[in-house]
Amino acid sequence: MPRTTPGAASPFEIGLLYVIGVVQGLALVTFPAASAILVSPTGFALSSTQYGAMFIPQVVLAILASAFGSSLARRLGLRGVLQFGLCGNLASMALLAVSPFLIGSPAAFVTLCLATGALGLGFGATTMTLNTLIQGLSTPARQDFAVLTLNALIGLGTALAPLLITLFSWLGTWWALPVLMSLSLGAMLLATLRAPLDLPVGEASHGASLPGRFWIYAAAVLLYGIAETLSGNWAALYLSTQRNVSAENASYALTAFWIMLTLGRVIFAVLARKLPVTLVFVGLPLLLALAFQLVARAQDASAGIAAFALVGLACSAILPLSLSFAGKEFPAQSAAMLGALIAFYQIGYGIAAFGGGPLVERAGLAYSAVFSLGSLIALALGAVAFLVNRTRAKAPTGSDTAPVPQVRP
Q: Are 378 and 74 in contact, with CB atoms under 8 Å apart?
């Protein structure tokens, strides 16, 4: 029987969820971190369009996993959904590990697409379940800390992936990372067999229609998904191909982006009770617009690393604030809102992950021009954030209290 007492989880269960968070972050960024290898003439020799198209299966399946995760949990239980997500991640890393044997064959691109598709299933199922479990298994007094810690650890994984790819590439064995990831995910999957990880799955929001103002929040997370993915997926290619930055320094720029995104979320969460969070919510997109202009004008490795670090800081609190505001405004539908908003974040991810290639190869835009266009996305996001604040001010359940970051995007 699922337990109902908050905080009844063992240290092993909580620790396991935290470790899975780090591994999920690593898996999510492994493909963008390996972008130089994927497009290199001595590697997979993918075109920019092929590189972007490779993420389409990931986006589609992540959207499906996020949108239907709560329904699946009612059938399999939360532990079952978590195990399903781990299996997806494991399949993804295993396919990536064997893909070097197919270089030069059309099967290589097909294998990479299958790998990203499996990652999409894994990411969508795992992130939803991790956040639900870490909140439900913590005492009310420690829920904020637990969610913040999980969020930071997922971010730690995203920051480590580019560094590890760089290290293994220097050793001439970049494929060692997906091999180690496969072994780690297999160990995590076995560990879940020993952990109850059980919580009652609520039925309250099942079948309920989402409120009209949901679409304002959906627009915010969609635009955020475009802005974040523009940096997360194209930073290394931009610096290495247009600015002639070494692959190592390009990886450092990507690492700086993820580190500052993670640190920014921690900083804003700690200072949330002292800062006017509605002002932060509108101000960060404006900072993001400026940061994209600095990225577009970066001419060397140092400027690129600094500019992408600023982009990471500007991105940091936007998604957590969006999810927190929506959850507090509509507490009875928080589970349905979370799944739907993560799905819209994935739509934004897909637009940026695939759209960059055609803009460069077919429209003839330079990568710097694409990042300049990112400023327009950031300004649109600022306008939507302003609209969210106005609607929250009129809503009786609206609150300006400290938000809790819900997921790592």
A: no
